[in-house]
Amino acid sequence: MKKTFYVTTPIYYASGDLHIGHTYTTVLADIMNRYKKLMGYETFFLTGSDEHGQKIATKALAENLSPKNYVDKIVEKFKNLWNLLDVDYDKFIRTTDDYHKKAVQEIFSKLVEKDLIYKGSYKGLYCVSCEEFLTSEQINEEGLCKVSQTKPEILAEETYFLRVSQFSDFLTKLFDTNFLTPESRKNEMLKNFIEPGLEDLSVTRISLEWGIPTNEDPKHVIYVWIDALSNYITALGYGQSENSLLKKFWNSKTEIVQYVGKEITRFHSIYWPVILEGLGLPMPTKLISHGWILAKDTKMSKSLGNVIDPIAVINGFSSDALRFYIAKELPTERDGNFTEELFIESYNTNLANNIGNLISRTNNMIVKYFDGNILEEIDLANHQITNLKNQMIANYIKEMNDYQIHKAVDIVMRFSQELNKFIEDEKPWALEKSGDTKNLAVVLKVLQESIAVIIHLLSPILTKSYSLMLNQIGYNKPLLNIYELESGKLVFEKINDRKIIFERIN
Ligand code: MSP
Where does this one sit in the cell (predicted)? Predict the structure, then answer.
Protein backbone atom coordinates (compact mmCIF):
# COMPACT_ATOMS: atom_id res chain seq x y z
CA MET A 1 0.00 0.00 0.00
CA LYS A 2 1.19 3.51 -0.80
CA LYS A 3 2.22 5.81 2.02
CA THR A 4 -0.21 8.68 2.56
CA PHE A 5 0.38 12.39 3.00
CA TYR A 6 -2.09 15.15 3.88
CA VAL A 7 -1.13 18.81 3.74
CA THR A 8 -3.20 21.88 4.59
CA THR A 9 -2.93 25.65 4.40
CA PRO A 10 -4.87 27.97 6.66
CA ILE A 11 -8.16 28.94 5.08
CA TYR A 12 -7.85 32.61 4.19
CA TYR A 13 -10.38 35.22 5.25
CA ALA A 14 -12.60 36.04 2.31
CA SER A 15 -12.41 39.68 3.29
CA GLY A 16 -10.22 41.09 0.53
CA ASP A 17 -7.54 40.28 -2.01
CA LEU A 18 -4.69 37.97 -1.10
CA HIS A 19 -1.14 39.30 -1.01
CA ILE A 20 2.36 37.84 -1.17
CA GLY A 21 2.16 36.79 2.50
CA HIS A 22 -0.71 34.42 1.74
CA THR A 23 0.94 33.01 -1.36
CA TYR A 24 3.91 32.14 0.83
CA THR A 25 1.99 29.60 2.95
CA THR A 26 0.17 28.11 0.00
CA VAL A 27 3.20 27.75 -2.23
CA LEU A 28 5.15 25.99 0.53
CA ALA A 29 2.30 23.52 0.94
CA ASP A 30 2.07 22.98 -2.80
CA ILE A 31 5.81 22.33 -3.06
CA MET A 32 5.71 19.84 -0.21
CA ASN A 33 2.73 18.09 -1.77
CA ARG A 34 4.42 17.79 -5.15
CA TYR A 35 7.59 16.55 -3.49
CA LYS A 36 5.70 13.80 -1.68
CA LYS A 37 4.18 12.71 -4.99
CA LEU A 38 7.68 12.55 -6.41
CA MET A 39 8.50 10.28 -3.47
CA GLY A 40 5.65 7.97 -4.42
CA TYR A 41 3.11 8.98 -1.76
CA GLU A 42 -0.62 9.17 -2.25
CA THR A 43 -1.32 12.77 -1.28
CA PHE A 44 -4.17 15.11 -0.47
CA PHE A 45 -3.78 18.89 -0.47
CA LEU A 46 -6.45 21.11 1.06
CA THR A 47 -6.88 24.85 0.94
CA GLY A 48 -9.92 27.11 1.16
CA SER A 49 -11.61 30.20 2.49
CA ASP A 50 -12.77 31.35 5.90
CA GLU A 51 -16.00 33.17 5.26
CA HIS A 52 -17.82 33.87 8.52
CA GLY A 53 -17.35 36.52 11.19
CA GLN A 54 -17.92 40.11 12.00
CA LYS A 55 -15.18 41.58 9.80
CA ILE A 56 -16.62 40.02 6.65
CA ALA A 57 -20.20 40.94 7.55
CA THR A 58 -19.15 44.57 8.02
CA LYS A 59 -17.25 44.67 4.74
CA ALA A 60 -20.18 43.22 2.83
CA LEU A 61 -22.50 45.80 4.34
CA ALA A 62 -20.17 48.58 3.26
CA GLU A 63 -20.44 47.33 -0.32
CA ASN A 64 -24.19 46.90 -0.11
CA LEU A 65 -23.92 43.17 -0.67
CA SER A 66 -25.19 40.21 1.30
CA PRO A 67 -22.27 38.49 3.06
CA LYS A 68 -22.70 35.46 0.80
CA ASN A 69 -22.60 37.52 -2.39
CA TYR A 70 -19.60 39.36 -1.09
CA VAL A 71 -17.58 36.21 -0.29
CA ASP A 72 -18.59 34.53 -3.56
CA LYS A 73 -16.80 37.27 -5.45
CA ILE A 74 -13.69 37.07 -3.30
CA VAL A 75 -13.46 33.29 -3.49
CA GLU A 76 -13.37 33.45 -7.28
CA LYS A 77 -10.33 35.68 -6.98
CA PHE A 78 -8.63 33.27 -4.58
CA LYS A 79 -9.10 30.40 -7.01
CA ASN A 80 -7.86 32.51 -9.87
CA LEU A 81 -4.69 33.36 -7.97
CA TRP A 82 -3.98 29.70 -7.14
CA ASN A 83 -4.56 28.84 -10.75
CA LEU A 84 -2.08 31.48 -11.92
CA LEU A 85 0.44 30.20 -9.39
CA ASP A 86 -0.06 26.59 -10.49
CA VAL A 87 -1.19 25.52 -7.04
CA ASP A 88 -2.44 21.99 -7.48
CA TYR A 89 -4.83 21.50 -4.56
CA ASP A 90 -7.18 18.53 -4.34
CA LYS A 91 -9.96 20.37 -2.59
CA PHE A 92 -11.01 23.93 -1.91
CA ILE A 93 -13.22 24.16 1.15
CA ARG A 94 -15.51 27.10 1.88
CA THR A 95 -16.83 27.50 5.42
CA THR A 96 -20.18 28.48 3.90
CA ASP A 97 -20.48 25.04 2.25
CA ASP A 98 -23.51 23.20 3.62
CA TYR A 99 -21.67 19.99 4.46
CA HIS A 100 -19.14 22.00 6.46
CA LYS A 101 -21.79 23.92 8.41
CA LYS A 102 -23.60 20.73 9.38
CA ALA A 103 -20.41 18.99 10.39
CA VAL A 104 -19.35 21.96 12.55
CA GLN A 105 -22.68 21.82 14.37
CA GLU A 106 -22.07 18.15 14.97
CA ILE A 107 -18.58 18.77 16.27
CA PHE A 108 -20.00 21.33 18.67
CA SER A 109 -22.72 18.93 19.85
CA LYS A 110 -20.24 16.15 20.36
CA LEU A 111 -18.08 18.38 22.56
CA VAL A 112 -21.18 19.47 24.52
CA GLU A 113 -22.14 15.81 25.00
CA LYS A 114 -18.70 15.07 26.36
CA ASP A 115 -19.06 18.03 28.74
CA LEU A 116 -16.10 19.71 27.11
CA ILE A 117 -18.27 22.73 26.27
CA TYR A 118 -20.39 24.52 28.91
CA LYS A 119 -22.43 27.71 29.17
CA GLY A 120 -21.12 30.78 31.04
CA SER A 121 -20.56 34.46 30.46
CA TYR A 122 -17.69 36.43 29.09
CA LYS A 123 -16.35 39.95 29.52
CA GLY A 124 -13.22 41.10 27.78
CA LEU A 125 -11.57 42.67 24.77
CA TYR A 126 -12.16 41.43 21.24
CA CYS A 127 -10.09 42.32 18.16
CA VAL A 128 -12.40 42.34 15.14
CA SER A 129 -9.54 42.40 12.66
CA CYS A 130 -7.97 39.23 14.12
CA GLU A 131 -11.37 37.74 15.17
CA GLU A 132 -9.80 36.97 18.51
CA PHE A 133 -10.32 37.62 22.23
CA LEU A 134 -7.18 39.33 23.48
CA THR A 135 -5.15 38.58 26.58
CA SER A 136 -3.21 41.43 28.24
CA GLU A 137 -0.07 40.04 26.54
CA GLN A 138 -1.57 40.87 23.15
CA ILE A 139 -2.31 44.56 23.84
CA ASN A 140 0.23 47.37 23.55
CA GLU A 141 0.65 50.47 25.74
CA GLU A 142 -1.81 52.47 23.67
CA GLY A 143 -4.43 49.79 24.20
CA LEU A 144 -4.22 48.52 20.60
CA CYS A 145 -3.96 44.93 19.38
CA LYS A 146 -0.25 44.30 18.75
CA VAL A 147 -0.88 42.42 15.50
CA SER A 148 -3.52 44.53 13.74
CA GLN A 149 -2.80 47.87 15.48
CA THR A 150 -6.55 48.39 15.86
CA LYS A 151 -8.60 49.18 18.97
CA PRO A 152 -10.31 46.12 20.46
CA GLU A 153 -13.99 46.22 21.43
CA ILE A 154 -15.26 45.57 24.94
CA LEU A 155 -17.47 42.53 24.79
CA ALA A 156 -19.71 41.23 27.56
CA GLU A 157 -22.15 38.44 26.77
CA GLU A 158 -23.42 34.99 27.54
CA THR A 159 -21.22 32.43 25.83
CA TYR A 160 -20.28 28.77 25.70
CA PHE A 161 -16.76 27.86 26.77
CA LEU A 162 -14.44 25.09 25.65
CA ARG A 163 -12.71 23.51 28.65
CA VAL A 164 -9.19 24.18 27.45
CA SER A 165 -7.95 24.39 31.04
CA GLN A 166 -8.64 20.67 31.49
CA PHE A 167 -6.09 19.85 28.83
CA SER A 168 -2.97 21.18 30.57
CA ASP A 169 -1.31 17.80 31.01
CA PHE A 170 -2.28 16.69 27.56
CA LEU A 171 -0.79 19.83 25.99
CA THR A 172 2.36 19.70 28.10
CA LYS A 173 2.93 16.17 26.83
CA LEU A 174 2.17 17.19 23.27
CA PHE A 175 4.67 20.04 23.51
CA ASP A 176 7.28 17.52 24.64
CA THR A 177 7.11 15.99 21.18
CA ASN A 178 8.34 17.52 17.92
CA PHE A 179 4.87 18.26 16.63
CA LEU A 180 5.33 22.03 16.48
CA THR A 181 8.27 23.49 14.64
CA PRO A 182 10.36 25.66 14.92
CA GLU A 183 11.56 25.29 18.49
CA SER A 184 11.40 29.04 19.11
CA ARG A 185 7.66 29.11 18.46
CA LYS A 186 7.16 26.10 20.68
CA ASN A 187 8.89 27.89 23.54
CA GLU A 188 6.81 31.00 22.93
CA MET A 189 3.58 29.00 23.24
CA LEU A 190 4.80 27.27 26.38
CA LYS A 191 5.93 30.50 28.01
CA ASN A 192 3.01 32.73 27.04
CA PHE A 193 0.04 30.40 27.18
CA ILE A 194 0.66 26.96 28.64
CA GLU A 195 2.92 27.62 31.62
CA PRO A 196 0.96 30.63 32.98
CA GLY A 197 -2.14 28.39 33.10
CA LEU A 198 -4.60 27.79 30.30
CA GLU A 199 -7.93 29.55 30.26
CA ASP A 200 -11.17 28.17 28.86
CA LEU A 201 -12.00 29.59 25.46
CA SER A 202 -15.23 31.39 24.61
CA VAL A 203 -16.57 29.55 21.56
CA THR A 204 -19.93 31.17 20.78
CA ARG A 205 -21.19 34.69 20.23
CA ILE A 206 -24.74 36.03 20.50
CA SER A 207 -24.00 39.42 18.96
CA LEU A 208 -22.95 37.88 15.67
CA GLU A 209 -25.26 36.79 12.90
CA TRP A 210 -22.95 35.84 10.06
CA GLY A 211 -21.86 32.43 11.31
CA ILE A 212 -22.99 28.89 12.06
CA PRO A 213 -25.68 28.68 14.79
CA THR A 214 -25.46 25.92 17.39
CA ASN A 215 -28.13 23.22 17.31
CA GLU A 216 -28.48 23.34 21.09
CA ASP A 217 -29.12 27.08 21.42
CA PRO A 218 -29.46 28.73 18.00
CA LYS A 219 -29.05 32.33 19.19
CA HIS A 220 -25.47 31.27 19.90
CA VAL A 221 -23.32 31.38 16.81
CA ILE A 222 -20.16 29.29 16.75
CA TYR A 223 -16.96 31.30 17.13
CA VAL A 224 -15.18 31.68 13.81
CA TRP A 225 -12.05 29.87 14.93
CA ILE A 226 -13.91 26.68 15.90
CA ASP A 227 -15.74 26.89 12.58
CA ALA A 228 -12.46 27.52 10.75
CA LEU A 229 -10.21 24.92 12.42
CA SER A 230 -12.79 22.21 11.84
CA ASN A 231 -12.33 22.62 8.08
CA TYR A 232 -9.30 20.34 8.14
CA ILE A 233 -11.50 17.37 8.96
CA THR A 234 -14.89 18.37 7.57
CA ALA A 235 -13.24 18.67 4.14
CA LEU A 236 -12.35 14.98 4.41
CA GLY A 237 -15.86 13.96 5.39
CA TYR A 238 -16.01 14.27 9.18
CA GLY A 239 -19.64 14.20 10.31
CA GLN A 240 -20.82 12.99 6.90
CA SER A 241 -21.83 9.58 5.64
CA GLU A 242 -19.23 9.57 2.86
CA ASN A 243 -15.99 9.76 4.82
CA SER A 244 -13.53 7.54 3.00
CA LEU A 245 -11.06 10.43 2.68
CA LEU A 246 -11.14 10.95 6.41
CA LYS A 247 -10.37 7.29 6.96
CA LYS A 248 -7.56 7.39 4.45
CA PHE A 249 -5.91 10.69 5.40
CA TRP A 250 -6.68 11.46 9.05
CA ASN A 251 -5.09 8.59 10.94
CA SER A 252 -1.88 7.97 12.79
CA LYS A 253 -0.19 6.35 9.79
CA THR A 254 -0.66 9.33 7.46
CA GLU A 255 1.94 12.09 7.51
CA ILE A 256 -0.29 15.10 8.28
CA VAL A 257 1.44 18.44 7.78
CA GLN A 258 -0.19 21.77 8.54
CA TYR A 259 1.35 25.06 7.46
CA VAL A 260 0.40 28.19 9.38
CA GLY A 261 1.79 31.68 9.96
CA LYS A 262 3.20 32.54 13.36
CA GLU A 263 0.28 34.75 14.47
CA ILE A 264 -2.19 31.87 14.22
CA THR A 265 0.06 29.28 15.86
CA ARG A 266 -1.78 29.51 19.17
CA PHE A 267 -5.03 28.38 17.54
CA HIS A 268 -3.37 25.50 15.76
CA SER A 269 -1.06 24.29 18.50
CA ILE A 270 -3.39 24.66 21.49
CA TYR A 271 -7.10 24.85 20.59
CA TRP A 272 -6.97 22.60 17.55
CA PRO A 273 -5.27 19.72 19.42
CA VAL A 274 -7.82 20.15 22.23
CA ILE A 275 -10.68 19.81 19.75
CA LEU A 276 -9.08 16.79 18.10
CA GLU A 277 -8.44 15.12 21.42
CA GLY A 278 -12.01 15.89 22.46
CA LEU A 279 -13.26 14.18 19.30
CA GLY A 280 -10.92 11.23 19.81
CA LEU A 281 -8.90 11.91 16.66
CA PRO A 282 -5.10 11.67 16.28
CA MET A 283 -2.85 14.73 16.25
CA PRO A 284 -1.27 16.02 13.04
CA THR A 285 2.31 14.89 12.50
CA LYS A 286 3.74 18.36 12.06
CA LEU A 287 2.61 21.91 12.53
CA ILE A 288 4.97 24.19 10.64
CA SER A 289 4.74 27.74 11.86
CA HIS A 290 6.41 30.19 9.52
CA GLY A 291 7.48 33.81 9.95
CA TRP A 292 6.10 36.84 8.18
CA ILE A 293 7.03 38.44 4.95
CA LEU A 294 7.95 41.96 5.81
CA ALA A 295 7.73 45.06 3.71
CA LYS A 296 10.33 47.47 5.03
CA ASP A 297 10.50 45.73 8.40
CA THR A 298 6.77 45.60 9.21
CA LYS A 299 4.35 42.78 8.53
CA MET A 300 2.82 43.00 5.11
CA SER A 301 -0.91 43.12 5.72
CA LYS A 302 -4.14 44.43 4.32
CA SER A 303 -4.93 46.42 7.45
CA LEU A 304 -1.53 48.15 7.32
CA GLY A 305 -1.89 48.91 3.61
CA ASN A 306 1.62 47.89 2.57
CA VAL A 307 0.96 44.80 0.51
CA ILE A 308 2.56 43.50 -2.69
CA ASP A 309 0.11 42.06 -5.19
CA PRO A 310 1.19 38.57 -6.28
CA ILE A 311 -0.63 38.90 -9.60
CA ALA A 312 1.54 41.88 -10.50
CA VAL A 313 4.64 39.81 -9.69
CA ILE A 314 3.40 36.87 -11.77
CA ASN A 315 2.54 39.11 -14.72
CA GLY A 316 5.78 41.08 -14.44
CA PHE A 317 8.01 38.02 -14.09
CA SER A 318 6.48 34.53 -13.90
CA SER A 319 4.79 32.18 -11.49
CA ASP A 320 7.93 30.03 -11.41
CA ALA A 321 10.06 33.04 -10.49
CA LEU A 322 7.73 33.80 -7.58
CA ARG A 323 7.56 30.18 -6.46
CA PHE A 324 11.33 29.96 -6.60
CA TYR A 325 11.84 33.09 -4.50
CA ILE A 326 9.45 31.75 -1.87
CA ALA A 327 11.18 28.37 -1.78
CA LYS A 328 14.76 29.59 -1.76
CA GLU A 329 14.81 32.95 -0.02
CA LEU A 330 12.22 32.71 2.73
CA PRO A 331 13.19 30.13 5.36
CA THR A 332 10.21 29.38 7.60
CA GLU A 333 12.06 29.91 10.89
CA ARG A 334 12.35 33.66 10.60
CA ASP A 335 10.71 36.68 9.03
CA GLY A 336 11.76 37.34 5.46
CA ASN A 337 11.89 40.25 3.07
CA PHE A 338 10.27 40.72 -0.25
CA THR A 339 11.42 43.63 -2.37
CA GLU A 340 11.75 43.93 -6.11
CA GLU A 341 15.54 44.35 -5.86
CA LEU A 342 15.97 41.18 -3.79
CA PHE A 343 13.62 39.32 -6.09
CA ILE A 344 15.48 40.26 -9.27
CA GLU A 345 18.86 39.60 -7.71
CA SER A 346 17.85 36.10 -6.63
CA TYR A 347 16.30 35.36 -10.02
CA ASN A 348 19.40 36.44 -11.93
CA THR A 349 21.86 34.66 -9.66
CA ASN A 350 20.02 31.38 -9.42
CA LEU A 351 17.76 30.92 -12.38
CA ALA A 352 19.41 32.96 -15.14
CA ASN A 353 23.13 32.69 -14.35
CA ASN A 354 23.24 29.32 -12.67
CA ILE A 355 20.52 26.87 -13.86
CA GLY A 356 19.57 28.62 -17.11
CA ASN A 357 23.17 29.06 -18.14
CA LEU A 358 24.05 25.43 -17.33
CA ILE A 359 21.20 24.08 -19.42
CA SER A 360 21.88 26.41 -22.31
CA ARG A 361 25.63 25.66 -22.46
CA THR A 362 25.10 21.93 -22.28
CA ASN A 363 22.34 22.00 -24.86
CA ASN A 364 24.57 24.08 -27.12
CA MET A 365 27.51 21.71 -26.96
CA ILE A 366 25.45 18.54 -27.44
CA VAL A 367 23.88 20.08 -30.53
CA LYS A 368 27.16 21.41 -31.86
CA TYR A 369 29.42 18.41 -31.19
CA PHE A 370 26.97 15.48 -31.41
CA ASP A 371 24.19 16.81 -33.59
CA GLY A 372 21.85 16.81 -30.57
CA ASN A 373 22.29 13.17 -29.55
CA ILE A 374 25.17 11.39 -27.79
CA LEU A 375 24.96 7.85 -29.14
CA GLU A 376 28.12 6.42 -27.51
CA GLU A 377 27.54 3.71 -24.87
CA ILE A 378 29.01 5.20 -21.72
CA ASP A 379 29.21 3.82 -18.21
CA LEU A 380 29.09 6.70 -15.77
CA ALA A 381 28.66 4.63 -12.60
CA ASN A 382 32.04 5.56 -11.16
CA HIS A 383 32.33 9.06 -12.48
CA GLN A 384 33.15 11.73 -9.87
CA ILE A 385 30.09 13.75 -10.91
CA THR A 386 27.84 10.70 -10.53
CA ASN A 387 29.05 10.34 -6.96
CA LEU A 388 28.43 14.00 -6.25
CA LYS A 389 25.02 13.70 -7.84
CA ASN A 390 23.96 10.74 -5.73
CA GLN A 391 25.14 12.44 -2.60
CA MET A 392 23.23 15.54 -3.63
CA ILE A 393 20.01 13.55 -4.13
CA ALA A 394 20.40 12.02 -0.66
CA ASN A 395 20.99 15.42 0.94
CA TYR A 396 18.06 16.93 -0.89
CA ILE A 397 15.77 14.15 0.32
CA LYS A 398 17.02 14.53 3.87
CA GLU A 399 16.24 18.27 3.93
CA MET A 400 12.89 17.92 2.20
CA ASN A 401 11.85 15.17 4.60
CA ASP A 402 12.69 17.63 7.34
CA TYR A 403 10.50 20.28 5.58
CA GLN A 404 13.57 22.46 5.02
CA ILE A 405 12.68 23.49 1.50
CA HIS A 406 15.16 26.36 1.30
CA LYS A 407 18.05 24.11 2.32
CA ALA A 408 17.07 21.49 -0.24
CA VAL A 409 16.99 24.14 -2.98
CA ASP A 410 20.35 25.40 -1.86
CA ILE A 411 21.83 21.92 -2.19
CA VAL A 412 20.59 21.68 -5.77
CA MET A 413 21.88 25.17 -6.59
CA ARG A 414 25.34 24.34 -5.27
CA PHE A 415 25.45 21.18 -7.33
CA SER A 416 24.48 23.19 -10.40
CA GLN A 417 27.33 25.58 -9.65
CA GLU A 418 29.67 22.59 -9.41
CA LEU A 419 28.56 21.52 -12.86
CA ASN A 420 29.21 24.97 -14.30
CA LYS A 421 32.67 24.76 -12.78
CA PHE A 422 33.12 21.24 -14.14
CA ILE A 423 32.55 22.64 -17.64
CA GLU A 424 35.22 25.29 -17.05
CA ASP A 425 37.67 22.67 -15.77
CA GLU A 426 37.06 20.05 -18.46
CA LYS A 427 36.90 22.51 -21.36
CA PRO A 428 34.80 20.42 -23.77
CA TRP A 429 35.74 22.82 -26.60
CA ALA A 430 39.40 21.84 -26.14
CA LEU A 431 38.51 18.12 -26.13
CA GLU A 432 36.68 18.65 -29.40
CA LYS A 433 39.63 20.50 -30.88
CA SER A 434 42.07 17.75 -29.97
CA GLY A 435 39.71 15.11 -31.39
CA ASP A 436 39.14 13.37 -28.01
CA THR A 437 35.55 12.39 -28.85
CA LYS A 438 35.41 9.68 -26.22
CA ASN A 439 36.10 12.00 -23.29
CA LEU A 440 33.99 14.70 -24.84
CA ALA A 441 31.03 12.31 -24.88
CA VAL A 442 31.66 11.35 -21.25
CA VAL A 443 31.71 14.98 -20.11
CA LEU A 444 28.54 15.94 -21.96
CA LYS A 445 26.68 12.80 -21.02
CA VAL A 446 27.36 13.16 -17.33
CA LEU A 447 26.22 16.77 -17.58
CA GLN A 448 23.06 15.76 -19.39
CA GLU A 449 22.18 13.16 -16.77
CA SER A 450 22.95 15.44 -13.87
CA ILE A 451 20.87 18.23 -15.32
CA ALA A 452 17.92 15.90 -15.79
CA VAL A 453 18.18 15.10 -12.09
CA ILE A 454 18.38 18.77 -11.13
CA ILE A 455 15.27 19.53 -13.15
CA HIS A 456 13.37 16.70 -11.50
CA LEU A 457 14.37 17.86 -8.04
CA LEU A 458 13.25 21.40 -8.82
CA SER A 459 10.02 20.24 -10.46
CA PRO A 460 7.93 20.77 -7.30
CA ILE A 461 8.94 24.43 -7.50
CA LEU A 462 9.43 25.28 -11.19
CA THR A 463 6.16 23.77 -12.30
CA LYS A 464 5.71 25.69 -15.52
CA SER A 465 9.28 25.48 -16.85
CA TYR A 466 10.17 21.90 -16.00
CA SER A 467 9.03 20.23 -19.21
CA LEU A 468 10.69 22.91 -21.31
CA MET A 469 13.88 22.54 -19.30
CA LEU A 470 13.83 18.76 -19.72
CA ASN A 471 13.17 19.16 -23.41
CA GLN A 472 16.21 21.40 -23.73
CA ILE A 473 18.46 18.55 -22.67
CA GLY A 474 16.64 15.92 -24.69
CA TYR A 475 14.52 14.26 -22.03
CA ASN A 476 10.86 14.07 -22.97
CA LYS A 477 9.43 11.35 -20.76
CA PRO A 478 6.96 11.95 -17.96
CA LEU A 479 8.45 12.83 -14.60
CA LEU A 480 10.15 10.01 -12.80
CA ASN A 481 9.90 9.39 -9.12
CA ILE A 482 13.01 9.90 -7.07
CA TYR A 483 13.96 6.23 -6.77
CA GLU A 484 14.02 5.82 -10.53
CA LEU A 485 16.27 8.87 -10.74
CA GLU A 486 18.78 7.45 -8.30
CA SER A 487 19.21 4.35 -10.40
CA GLY A 488 20.42 6.48 -13.34
CA LYS A 489 19.83 5.00 -16.82
CA LEU A 490 17.95 7.89 -18.34
CA VAL A 491 17.19 7.61 -22.02
CA PHE A 492 17.64 10.81 -24.01
CA GLU A 493 16.37 11.79 -27.41
CA LYS A 494 17.79 14.05 -30.05
CA ILE A 495 17.73 17.73 -29.05
CA ASN A 496 16.08 19.73 -31.77
CA ASP A 497 15.24 23.18 -30.62
CA ARG A 498 16.98 25.71 -28.45
CA LYS A 499 15.29 28.25 -26.26
CA ILE A 500 16.45 30.57 -23.55
CA ILE A 501 14.63 29.51 -20.43
CA PHE A 502 15.40 32.05 -17.74
CA GLU A 503 16.31 35.24 -19.47
CA ARG A 504 18.34 37.66 -17.35
CA ILE A 505 16.39 40.61 -15.99
CA ASN A 506 18.21 43.92 -16.24
N1 MSP B 1 -8.77 32.69 8.53
C2 MSP B 1 -7.64 32.62 9.37
C3 MSP B 1 -7.04 31.24 9.34
C4 MSP B 1 -7.92 30.12 9.72
S5 MSP B 1 -7.14 28.59 9.57
C6 MSP B 1 -8.12 27.49 10.31
C7 MSP B 1 -6.60 33.64 8.92
N8 MSP B 1 -6.69 34.08 7.67
S9 MSP B 1 -5.74 35.19 7.02
O10 MSP B 1 -6.29 35.42 5.72
O11 MSP B 1 -5.63 36.32 7.87
O12 MSP B 1 -4.30 34.64 6.90
C13 MSP B 1 -3.93 33.33 6.80
C14 MSP B 1 -2.46 33.08 6.65
O15 MSP B 1 -1.76 34.05 5.89
C16 MSP B 1 -1.73 32.95 7.97
O17 MSP B 1 -0.97 31.76 7.96
C18 MSP B 1 -0.84 34.15 7.98
O19 MSP B 1 0.33 33.97 8.73
C20 MSP B 1 -0.55 34.32 6.51
N21 MSP B 1 -0.05 35.65 6.29
C22 MSP B 1 -0.75 36.82 6.27
N23 MSP B 1 0.13 37.85 6.13
C24 MSP B 1 1.39 37.36 6.06
C25 MSP B 1 2.66 37.90 5.84
N26 MSP B 1 2.87 39.20 5.69
N27 MSP B 1 3.70 37.04 5.76
C28 MSP B 1 3.54 35.68 5.84
N29 MSP B 1 2.36 35.14 6.06
C30 MSP B 1 1.27 35.96 6.24
O31 MSP B 1 -5.73 33.98 9.70
Answer: Cytoplasm
Any binding-site annotation on 5?
no
Label each residue of 235-301 as H, E or C: CCCCCCCCCHHHHHHCCCCCEEEEEEEHHHHHHHHHHHHHHHHHHCCCCCCEEEEECCEEECCEECC
Yes or no: say if 192 and 237 are a contact pair by the CB < 8 Å rule: no
Superfamily, domain 4-290: HUPs (3.40.50.620)
> Of 295-304, 352-361, 489-498, which one has max mean pLDDT?
352-361
> Does the pLDDT of residue 152 top 80, yes or no?
yes
Ligand 1 atom at minimum distance from 295 CA: 26
Q: Where in the chain is the domain with CATH 1.10.730.10?
A: 340-486
CA dist 224 → 13, 106, 219, 220, 403 (Å): 10, 15, 15, 12, 29
CATH for 340-486, options being 3.40.50.300, 3.90.180.10, 1.10.730.10, 1.10.540.10: 1.10.730.10
pLDDT at 303 over 80: no
Residues touching ligand 1 (Cβ under 6 Å) are 10-13, 21-22, 24-25, 50, 228-229, 231, 260-261, 263-264, 292-293, 299-301
- For residue 12, report the distance from its CA to the centre of ligand 1, in Å: 6
Is 363 labelled as part of a ligand binding site? no
Against a cut of 0.85, is the pTM above it? yes
Residues of the chain with CATH 3.40.50.620: 4-290
Nearest atom within ligand 1 for CA of residue 19: 23
For residue 268, which atom of ligand 1 is closest to its CA? 6
Is 155's pLDDT higher than 90? no
Average pLDDT, the chain: 94
* pLDDT score recorded for residue 488: 62
